[in-house]
Amino acid sequence: MSEASKAPPAGAGGLELAPWPQVDHAAFGPVETLPLPRIQKFVSATLSRNWVMIPHVTHHDDADITELAAVRARIAEQTGQKVTPLAFMMKAAVVALKAYPRFNASIGADGTSLILKQYYHIGLAVDTPQGLLVPVIRDVDKKTVSDISAEIAELSTKARDKGLPMSVMQGGSFTISSLGSIGGTAFTPIINAPEVAILGTTRSYEKPVRQGESTVWRTMLPLSLSYDHRVINGADAARFCCEFAKAFAAPEALCG
């Protein structure tokens, strides 16, 4: 315990890594060398730091989103707006973050304190030709799914077409990385420091579920929750996913 109290600050390094291998790849066959975009070089350095310095653990689960299609269809019919599932994910994330505040936190720069945030600013990982960008939707708890959906569309378009200023990508308290309909069943998203958790989702699938004496098909969304094990334990990660899945299973209640 006395040694642990002398631990370096959360942002300290101290790792002694072997040098990167220097290889003449052209000696083995034809190659093409392309410069990395500026954004991709910045993101690469950030992700490398986060992966090495944060003890990642990833918890996997499923959320039943069978009712989501009907709610989205109703909103589209009433308002003419197509609301992205990501808007509902963000609202469900707020429900889970309020139930488990340690997920909406950051470790202090000195490594000896935990900063519990009273706001719910959710980051969204956006794949762009220049690299990965994470715009932040602020005050998700105070916005409707329609408002959130419109903001997601606007920021995603700007991210892909023009890029985003740093001010739009700062101040997040939690991040969601959705692979949407691209594919996959699970992955390990890298935590977006100084946050302590990130939720990844992949393509939904149909699953037979036993209900009483019968079996029904339900639409399930795979969840991959990576968390900082210095702050969060496995039991709370499982509870967080259950709370998120419970909220997401009732999308009508998230519309307000």
Write out key terms for the chains shown.
single chain, 256 residues, 7-stranded mixed β-sheet, two-stranded antiparallel sheet, 5 helices, 11 strands, 29% helix, globular
Itemize the secondary structure elements and their pairings.
Layout: H1 38-53, E1 56-64, H2 68-79, H3 85-99, E2 105-107, E3 114-116, E4 122-124, E5 126-128, E6 131-133, E7 136-137, H4 145-161, E8 174-178, E9 197-201, E10 205-211, E11 214-228, H5 234-248
Parallel strand pairs: 4-8, 8-9
Antiparallel strand pairs: 1-11, 2-3, 4-7, 5-6, 9-11, 10-11
Helix pairs in contact: 3-4, 3-5
What does this structure look like?
The protein has helices at 38-53, 68-79, 85-99, 145-161, 234-248; strands at 56-64, 105-107, 114-116, 122-124, 126-128, 131-133, 136-137, 174-178, 197-201, 205-211, 214-228. The chain starts with 37 loop residues before the first helix and ends in an 8-residue tail after the last helix. 29% of the residues lie in helices and 23% in strands. With 256 residues, it is α+β, with helices and mostly antiparallel strands. The mean pLDDT is 92. The protein is globular. Strands 1, 4, 7, 8, 9, 10 and 11 form a seven-stranded mixed sheet that branches. Helix 3 crosses helix 5 (234-248). The longest helix is centred in the middle third of the chain and has 17 residues, at 145-161.
